[in-house]
Amino acid sequence: MKHLVRQIGRYKIPLNWTLFILAISTLPLTYAGPREQAKRMHDRLTGIPPSIQVLDEMENLIAEGKVSEAADIAMQNPAFYSVTLKNWITPWTNEEADVFAPLNDYTATIIGMVRDDIDFRQILSGDILYVANSNAGIPPYSMTSNAHYQALEEQSADLQDILQRTTQSEETGLPAQATAGVMTTRAAAKSFFKDGTNRAMFRFTLINHLCTDLEGLKDTSRSPDRIRQDVSRSPGGDSRIFNNSCVGCHAGMDPLAQAFAYYNYEYNVESDPQGEQGALQYNNQGQVDPDTGSQVQAKYHINGNNFPYGFFTNNDDWSNYWRQGLNKNLGWDTALPGNGSGAKSMGQELANSQQFANCQVTKVFRNVCLRSPQDAADRSKITTITNTFTNTGYNIKQVFADAADYCKGE
Amino acid sequence: MVYITSLCTSKRHQPITSFWILVIILLLSACGGSSVEVTKTPAPAPQDNTPVTYSGPVAATPDVTQFKLELWDNISSPQRCGACHVQDNQSPEFARNDDINLAYNAASQLVNFSTPEDSTLVTKVAAGHNCWLSSDAACGEILATWIGNWGATENTANDIQLEAPIAKDPGANKNFPDNSLLFEDNVYPLLQTYCANCHTGSATIPISPYFASSDIDESYAVSKARISLDTPENSRFVERIRDEFHNCWSDCASNANDLINGIQDMADAIELTELDEQLINSKALTLFDGTLASGGGRFENNVIAKWEFKTGSGTTAFDTSGVEPAIDLTLNGDASWIGGWGIQLSNGKAQGSTTNSKKLHNLITATGEFSIEAWVVPANVSQEGPARIISYSGGANTRNFTLGQTLYNYDFLLRTDKTNVNGQPALSTADAAEVLQASLQHVVVNYDSVNGRQIFVNGRFTGDTDPTEVGNFADWNDTYAFVLGNEVSGDIPWAGSIRMVAIHNRTLSAEQVAQNFDVGIGQKFFLLFEVSEITETPQSYIVIEVSQFDSYSYLFSEPFFYTLDDSISIPDIPLQGMRIGINGREANVGQVFQNINTLLTQSDYVPAKGQLLSSLGTIIPIEKGATSDEFFLTFEVLAEQTNVMVEADPPAPAATIDLAAQAEIGIRNFAEINASMSAVTRVPMDNSSVKASFEQLKQQLPSFTNMDSFLASNQMAVTQLAIKYCDQLVETTNLRDSYFSDFNFNQSAETAFTAQGRNAVLLPLTSNILNSDLSDQPNNTDVINELDNLVTRLTDCSGDKVCDATYTKTVVKAVCAAALGSAVITLQ
User: Cβ A233–B817 below 8 Å, yes or no?
Assistant: First the structure.
């Protein structure tokens, strides 16, 4: 290799750039016919160029007006799962939004759900998990290790082919009613239930699946009656900060995040400070936490004397205070009660909001069109695709197809 | 009269001559009459307090002994009450020094043991009568402490007798009009001009609330909570700019004034209106109309110094422990008083004199144990040093003891014969526990010869055990000074607020720590909100404990229903949706009781305690000040009356603003490039050589698909990966034979690249990499020509260049890499 580089080094970069400029200068000036549209759809959906045979096939379908079928052909390529979906989902599985994070059960489960056309709302409430089939010859799924998925990644395994559906309750022993889609996967627990107060799980679910951080939802007019005792009412001795900032998020977040009161990520802080061998731990019915005397995890009572008159958590009942006030605009499902017990029903509350559907469509749009919705035409298309999404069983593959159709060029 | 009193006092200062003796004898006889009216001494008396040696009859009872020890010894000196209130002088003669039993009889008429602060002795002095300090209140505090000590060997919580306030209705106020015209004309222009980059739903990073929205209704709806029509200068919009310097558009003070003027103009156009008739409201009262909940219940039997910071002004924080000599602290530097009792320090200190500080040395070394107790509010969790919160020290490296802060930890440094002169090694709370928080905390540090050092935070032992062997205080230095908020040298400041500090010369037990924590801090009142007319139950009230939480808020906690008429039976009374009103309107934050839904019943009513409605508490912002703010309660349902609030729908989000046009094409990201190269070369991604290169290069490859973020370093990584793929394609026999099936790799470079040979290399490459007949990609022929030129340049074998079969492979790899590393792959 060194020999090669030494010999041709002086030509290498100039030639690359020549071809680069050649390509760019050609693109905007040309009319995108069915063949060019097919190429772009394939590029965007799978990340890789099509074979000539596939390109011909897609071109013909597009010429016949069967754009969706053309997209389906592209999405049959394994790269749609192993490249596009994997990189779309991976940043949601960690606080840093790191796209280089290893494959894990959160990512694999959503990939499998997309493949099997499962109602996408289930990602926040289903008793569902995808593992490699038994022929993979890799370490089995484990509560205390990600080795199973890392081995798949090492092998550059075809995720479209190798993943098979199972349930969390079967694989992890978590009670079925305590499962809540990807929120109760090991990867999510490791990222968002580790240490802290479990509010991270709520916040990052908002960011990743409702496309808004808490800053966008601040509403100081909600009652603070569910804000926990650990939140200082006078940070640094200045209660104005609480009344004007903290309360805006905590008043709505704390009663929703109470749904996670029985969950924790257990690990050995001394021997395994990163929690690589840790596991999701759930206080089952009848299981009493020694620190709280109830099913509630100790983390829900830490720093309780910061404000003893704050809310004391003694169960996992949640309420959605954001159904009223500014955040009513998120479009909550009026058929649901707006309160309940546990993460599963809270996940349903989030996933049945208009904001959830809109967010998923917007994320797909960005991924396929390589840009944000920018004008009225784009926004109108987002609305149309969202309506299709919500009216046809929340099939996310259809969203990819619709977005690829919209951005295939003219 | 003034003359007489002055003389009574002035005899402390003047040389006594025979002439003056005569005059004084004549005049002293006048001092003794009960009809003599005593007036305030013009100037505070000096602080020295020479003790009186008592040599009269012995105390008749143990209580008289207690009186002498706790009160008489402290007040009988000629510098205090002993100047006048002695035998044959000013009545009452509670400080007489001829017979302690007679003094006891006189004093007994002037004290109230259940509420020492209400004693005649205390109220008289606190009102200005011959206080020996510069603060009348401080003298009152100290006297109350002495009386409390006389009256009880152990402090116990006192039963509070709730008293009915004078009933009055909530006052009138200005309310927001329904339409937004006034807002639009006066305030909105400023908001839209200067805040719209963030506070709109269509901002790049939208920051709620969207008061700068392009939709005036959306803006008006969320702005109401941030505008104070009654006191425009207290509007949140103004505070954010003026006090917190939040994105001022020029000068913060003048920007704030612009906002004040706008809000004032808006307010001026709005008439005062009475409280909404629809509201079901209680009677109204101010904080000081409430019943004072005295601070009884604290365990202070062994307190030797105490600062409660009640003075609220000046530069002296008084030691009100009643134990002489008082270590009064002088505030200097960046130190100020805060509302609700306390001082705030950022780069200042409150320091006592070395002479008076010696009290700590004397009284603590005598017992060999002590306890420091404090209510503190660290300003942040980033200061270290340890930053000195409480210290008895001689400089940065010498101390008897220090309570400090390092990030999330409290540190306790103590000099014993087992530690060094700097009190090290320190006992610190565990890093992982993060017990120190930037909020109001009760901290106690104990030291005794059994347990060593112990730290309690918010009533609980932190569990940190002292690793250092216990020792004694033989090495303590009595020339050090006691200081708060800094080192005595002034170079290791602590930022935060201190609400109370007490030093005990015995340790506090865990129960006593918890007891003192439970009592809390600050002046508390029970506010009795009368609801008799609504409930039709005589003298019925919703009672809430209210205190000033800090300089900016009141704390309302644990409301209960109560009737002052013990004789009545309480009917079933439904109560729902209780809200706190302040100055004629419901507070727009902190409505923690609005979801209450309960039934007041006789069976749940506990005599003398009432019926608890909620164990929660909340903070309500101070508006006009503790003396002026008027509170009331409103209810959605109370007894027969109903006013259920139905919240209006929020305004629809404003229309999204168009973004600048973005590119319709982008770059492939790292994984797409890798997969694409694999797809067009047919070299599998798990080829070990390729995989190793990809792992090494993936973070240098593009992470994002945005064209704008593409860098030369990305292209370098693309090129390196392309070379690796082409290398494996050419070096792996079966891949090579399949891909370049018509090319002979065994020939030298001079002979291999005939026209046919070139086609055998270039056609597979271009057809696989470029796809065919795509009008938006470079023309195949153009690319082939470019690559052909490259082959020509590379196969110029003139000179001493070695053009063997190995070099043939090299040329193929080079041509392959040039095509593979191009925009054909990187663009999508």
Answer: no
Q: Does B706 touch chain A (CB under 8 A)?
A: yes
Rounded Cα–Cα distance for residues B813 and B790 (Å): 12
Q: Per the structure, how many domains does chain B have?
A: 4
Angle (CA) B524 B525 B530, round 5°: 155
Tens-place pLDDT, residues B598-626: 999 999 999 888 999 999 999 999 888 88
B634 CB within 8 Å of a chain A CB: no
* B335 and B227 in a common domain: no
Distance CA B626, CA B548 (A): 8
Considering only residues B509 and B339, tell me which one the structure prediction assigns the higher pLDDT: B509
Which pLDDT belongs to residue B294? 61
Residue B606 lies in a domain: yes
* Residue of chain A whose Cα is closest to the Cα of B379: A236
Average pLDDT over chain B, rounded to an integer? 87
* Domain co-membership, B337 together with B258: no
* Chain A residues lying within 8 Å of B828, measured CB to CB: 40, 43-44, 47, 370
**CB-CB under 8 Å, A27 with B222:** no
Domain CATH code at residue B308 = 2.60.120.200
Q: Enumerate residues 251 to 310 of chain A having a beta carbon within 8 A of any beta carbon in chain B.
A: 269, 303, 305-310
User: Is B446 strand, coil or helix?
Assistant: strand
Nearest residue in A to B615, CA atom: A309
H/E stretch holding B121 reads: helix B120-126
Which of B626, B642, B658 terminates a domain? The answer is B642
Taking the C-alpha atoms of residue B301 and residue B608, their distance in angstroms, rounded to an integer, is 29
> Phi then psi for A119, rounded to 5 degrees?
-45, 120
Determine contact: A239 vs chain B, CB below 8 A: yes
pLDDT digits (tens, 9 = 90+) for B367-411: 889 999 999 999 999 999 999 999 999 999 999 999 999 999 999
Chain-chain contact of B662 with A372 (C-beta, under 8 angstroms)? yes
Mean pLDDT, residues A251-262: 98
Nearest to A30 among B201, B672, B775 (CB): B775
Determine contact, residues A153/A138, Cβ cutoff 8 Å: no
Residue B763 in contact with residue B709, Cβ under 8 Å? no
The answer to whether residues A228 and A300 touch, using CB atoms and an 8 Å cutoff, is yes
Give the pTM.
0.81
Which residues are CB-contacts of B297 (< 8 A; sequence separation ≥ 6)?
A: B155, B156, B157, B158, B515, B518, B519
Q: Does B682 touch chain A (CB under 8 A)?
A: no
Inspect the interface and report whether the beta carbons of B647 and A324 lie closer than 8 Å. Answer: yes
Q: Please check the confidence at residue B46 and state whether its pLDDT lies above 60.
A: no
Same domain, B630 and B768: no
Assign residue B59 a region: left if phi > 0, alpha if psi is -120 to 50, beta otherwise?
beta
Is residue B72 domain-resident? Answer: no
Q: Does B376 share its domain with B457?
A: yes
Q: pLDDT tens for residues B414-434?
A: 999 999 999 999 999 999 888
Per CB-CB distance under 8 Å, the chain B contacts of A309 are 555, 557-558, 615-618
pLDDT tens figures, B668-723: 999 999 999 999 999 999 999 999 999 999 999 999 999 888 999 999 999 999 99
Closest by CA position to B372, among listed B481, B210, B502, B512 = B502
Beta carbons of A225 and B593 less than 8 Å apart: yes
Q: By CA distance, what is A220's nearest residue in B? A: B589
Structural domain harbouring B221: 176-269
- What ipTM describes this predicted complex? 0.91
Query: Which of B432, B549, B825 comes nearest A234 by C-beta?
Result: B549
Residue at B7 is within a domain = no
Residue B324 and residue B378 in one domain: yes
Within an 8 Å CB–CB cutoff, is residue B295 touching chain A? no
Residue B708 lies in a domain: yes
